[in-house]
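Why run this: before we spend reagent on co-expression, it is cheaper to look at a predicted model of the complex and decide which construct boundaries make sense. The entries below are exactly what would go into the expression plan.
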Amino acid sequence: MSTSSAAYGPPGTPGRGPDPRAARSRAAALAAAQELLVEQGWAAVTHVAVAARSGVGRTTLYRHWPDTSGMLRDAVVQRIQAAHITPSGDLRADLVGELDALRRLLHDPVSEHGMRAVIERAGVDPVFARLKQELYAAGSRVQREILERARAAGELPADLDVDLAVDRLAGPLVYRRLLAGAEFGTDVVQAVVDGFLAAEAPRG
Amino acid sequence: MSTSSAAYGPPGTPGRGPDPRAARSRAAALAAAQELLVEQGWAAVTHVAVAARSGVGRTTLYRHWPDTSGMLRDAVVQRIQAAHITPSGDLRADLVGELDALRRLLHDPVSEHGMRAVIERAGVDPVFARLKQELYAAGSRVQREILERARAAGELPADLDVDLAVDRLAGPLVYRRLLAGAEFGTDVVQAVVDGFLAAEAPRG
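The model came back. Tokens follow.
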């Protein structure tokens, strides 16, 4: 830590937060990584290719991200974290709102290609398998909160399997976009939510 | 055609069907391609790597499959084609049976890794995009037949959206295996089918 700060200023200089030049080169590198991911897939997101496209030096890239998986993660995660809603307590509106956020991610080129990449790499690379679990946990967290609140309030069955409910709500949307290859709107999200509620909350 | 048969026998030899040695080398190459796919992903399935592992010459491999995508397709397709059931006319039993065939494919290393590979490559490579559409059409064909028969017989609503019904039935299983990363049994298939039928065929 002291070695690294000594490289950027004289000893004793008070901390000033992140170097703005470092922040700019990080942003330029992530933008280049996102473009390469969308155009050519994860295999094209290498230190050499990102350096060539962004103009950021390879040494700087290796300092930010020793492995390409970390670079890919940072390129994707910022999109996914920004997408969640804040639940209101209205079960149907909350499910439609949160799953419509997933629908938008599935139609955003960066997060769509990021999901395709982690699905593939997770099958053969433990680093990506961990990354996929992180994205799955982060991506389904608010869905779980909505379902668990409704279960506690008696709006859903007390013995509802929340994992399976997430599969039944998010699965059709992911399948329709990544397997069937279709684009779709909020009407499909509403139909999936209404089908789920017709089976699980018929008294509503 | 005549040039190629001239290489294997004297002119005028009657046709004898495929050369058994060619069939053996094709099978050895596909087995090696399946191993590489499962161990390292699609990017490892190259003519050089398949030749090294199978002992089949590179010239022979290029004659069978000018492109690696064709080699990968043949390595995966034989698994998927063998999996379908023959519907009996009992709606619930047919849906559970056909979706349980999908569940088994999702737990077979070759078809599981094949699905992961085409989901990723389809986003950036038109050859794989076509392959994914072929696999999607072949994989959902029997589900559609079951749903359309039941709709015609009045067991499902006349205005049922069959595409969306496939998403709601197959999507949760694909999501649970490829995204959530879970292994599961026929009980999950039954729960997904029963949830769908509770929403769409409540009078049954």
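Chain A touches chain B through 49 residues (CB under 8 Å). Residues 1-13 of chain A have pLDDT under 50 and may be disordered. Bring this page to Monday's planning discussion.
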